[in-house]
Amino acid sequence: MHVVLISACEKRALKRSRAILDSYALRAGERAWATPITLEGLQELRAALKRTASRHTAVACYRNEGMRRMCLLWIVGSARHFGPHGHFPAGTTRRKKPEIPSWIRYAALLADAAGQGHDVGKASKAFQLKLRDFKLEQKDSLRHEWVSLKIIQALRTGADWDTAWRRLETQPEREGVPFDEHGLTNVFDAFDFLVVSHHGLFGPRAGDAALSAENHVRSTPAFELAQYRPHAELPVLSLALLHKKLRRLEKITPPADVSIPLYWRALSLIARAGLILADHAISSLTKTKAAELYANTQQIKGQNHRPLNQPLDQHLSDVSSLAGRMT
Questions:
Q1: pTM over cut 0.85
Q2: What is the pLDDT of residue 208?
Q3: Helix (H, G, I), strand (E, B) or coil at 203
Q4: Are 87 and 74 within 8 A, CB to CB?
Q5: Are 236 and 79 in contact (CB under 8 A)?
Q6: Which residues lie across from 26 on neighbouring strands?
Q7: Rounded to the nearest 10 degrees, how much is the dihedral formed by the CA atoms of 239, 134, 216, 115?
Q8: Three-state DSSP class for 261?
Q9: Does domain 2-77 sit in CATH 3.30.70.240?
Q10: What is the pLDDT of residues 158-215, one digit of tens each?
């Protein structure tokens, strides 16, 4: 057969590919070679190119199929220099990517940060005991979303992990909602809203006729605040990631010509959708790695026992990453 070889190599790959091609074919131009060759010889040439290939290598081989056309046989290295049928461009034009609007970036950052902190409250003794003993009452006296909110608010003030949990015992658990009167006035109001509402918006309990701030915590006789102490500490890396994402939120500034409460509310609604979808998607996966803290359990049809599933730190990281991409 008769073949033509075209090199679009760059940098050091150009010198290496030239040395190989010169030993198998005759030059027909600065970056072109042509030669009659057997199938075995062509296979040997391709193998030699592959052995020295790098990300800067790009060599295309065409077979002469008579007077009508040349047929692309293969490309070694990067194919981006060639068209779908091996055509080499006479020139290239680069188009500037349109800039992503700031509100889209900010919504993604909010969802990403909220994903890293949304289930921090699951580190409580009460929640971890519930996961390990499915026969226990499954309704939380104090919702894990609310615990997550209070813990993160304490961490933002500079408290360490243990101090943040101790504050749950000294501060009234029904206080501290920052968005009930004046709406969302800053980025951390929006973040808090995402964390505390990722399972449901604030509202009355089933059967109640009116909204009441008293209804966000179940008032049961068995409720003991001592149950809401940490079962174990989150891994250092997970807490460091949370602090890093919170610092990143500080750089978000809304445009000067917008209504602040409406702006944060709009961003929160978009980010909340991404957070909820990501949480559902990640929670449906099975990850049985050993850990001290878990996010959920596996549901196995026909069995009363539910194995522990998803280490909490991995769940937070995965939801954070997916929520940021989905928003």
A1: no
A2: 54
A3: coil
A4: no
A5: no
A6: 34
A7: 30
A8: helix
A9: yes
A10: 999 999 999 887 764 555 555 556 678 899 999 999 999 999 876 655 555 555 555 5
